[in-house]
UniProtKB/TrEMBL annotation:
It holds the Pfam family Acetyltransf_1. Residues 3-143 form the N-acetyltransferase domain. It comes from the Bacteria. Keywords: Transferase. The keyword Cytoplasm does not apply. CDD domains: NAT_SF (cd04301). GO terms for molecular function: acyltransferase activity, transferring groups other than amino-acyl groups. InterPro entries: Acetyltransferase_Butenolide, Acyl_CoA_acyltransferase, GNAT_dom. This is GNAT family N-acetyltransferase.
């Protein structure tokens, strides 16, 4: 079945997107939160198959200096098909022209992003709302 690619949030079922993130699994992202974060993202990508949302991603970007890819999610039944790679490629392409394109990956997935030219940053730091949980999940290090 053909994939339907959309780059606008118009008509998105935020409950369906929330379920996609749970199934992917990228955690519990409530519909209202997703509506806000996608609404504030310069670039967005939604992929449908037969009217069903099967993948999504977004990039926060300021139009010149920095673009930040985040929330790349693909339904488990579509993982391993190249769909995630296509979503990242489209977001990277839309972000071209920015001085830097940044993302942070699920621990262990870094080799996937290296294929797009991403390299590990030595000085990246973050403040999370729940730092202990992120330490346990491998997103943060106290080193």
């Amino acid at each position: 079945m053909a994939l339907d690619w959309r780059h606008t949030a118009e008509g998105i079922d935020w409950d369906e997107l929330s379920a996609l993130y749970r199934d992917a699994p990228l955690g519990d992202k409530p519909p209202d939160l997703l509506r806000t974060v996608f609404g504030n993202s310069l670039f967005k990508c939604f992929v449908f198959e037969g009217g069903r949302l099967v993948g999504a991603g977004r990039a926060l970007a300021d139009g010149a200096d920095c673009a930040y890819l985040c929330d790349i999610a693909v339904l488990p039944g579509h993982q391993g098909t190249g769909l995630g790679k296509q979503i990242v490629a489209q977001l990277v392409e839309r972000s071209r022209g920015h001085r830097k394109i940044i993302l942070y990956a699920v621990p262990g997935k870094e080799p996937f992003y290296r294929k797009f030219g991403f390299l590990r940053m030595k000085t990246a730091m973050a403040i999370f709302s729940n730092p202990q949980q992120q330490l346990e999940r491998g997103y943060l290090s106290e080193d």
